């Protein structure tokens, strides 16, 4: 079963903007959606939280190269792609992560 996690903290509103997209994509993929609120810097380290919002499919961050990062903490996250930056990851990254996870299961 595919699992999509949306990790966030209450101080950053970007996850609210991303929620409808993540919910729709998880539903389309037949995946379970788990919302994970990160509440402390210690928890951020423990769950490898790169900032809000973080989207993972079966435990893997949707951002290419994110597995190499170690800058965990309570912060709003920015995503850089196609020469721009955004407070939410592009839908294509989420779709690609779902496709990769589906191929593995």
Strand tally is: 6
**Radius of gyration over all CA atoms, rounded:** 13 Å
Q: Termini separation (Å)? A: 8 Å
Order of helices and strands: EHEHEEEEH
> What summary fits the major beta sheet?
4 strands, mixed
Number of helices: 3
Give the class-level CATH name. Alpha Beta
Average pLDDT, rounded to a whole number, is 95
Whole-number count of domains: 1
Structural class: alpha+beta
Q: What share of the residues does DSSP label as strand, in percent?
A: 15-25%
CATH architecture: 3-Layer(aba) Sandwich
Shape: globular
Helix content: 25-40%
Explained architecture:
With 105 residues, this protein is an alpha+beta fold. It has one domain: Glutaredoxin (3-Layer(aba) Sandwich), CATH 3.40.30. The protein is 34% helix and 23% strand. The protein is built from 3 helices and 6 strands. The strands form 2 sheets. The chain has a 4-stranded mixed beta sheet. Helix 1 packs parallel to helix 3.
Short note summarizing the structure:
This protein is of the alpha+beta class and 105 residues long.
Task: Describe how the helices and strands are arranged.
Blueprint: E1 3-8, H1 14-29, E2 32-37, H2 41-46, E3 54-57, E4 60-61, E5 79-81, E6 84-86, H3 91-104
Parallel strand pairs: 1-2
Antiparallel strand pairs: 1-3, 3-4, 5-6
Helix pairs in contact: 1-3
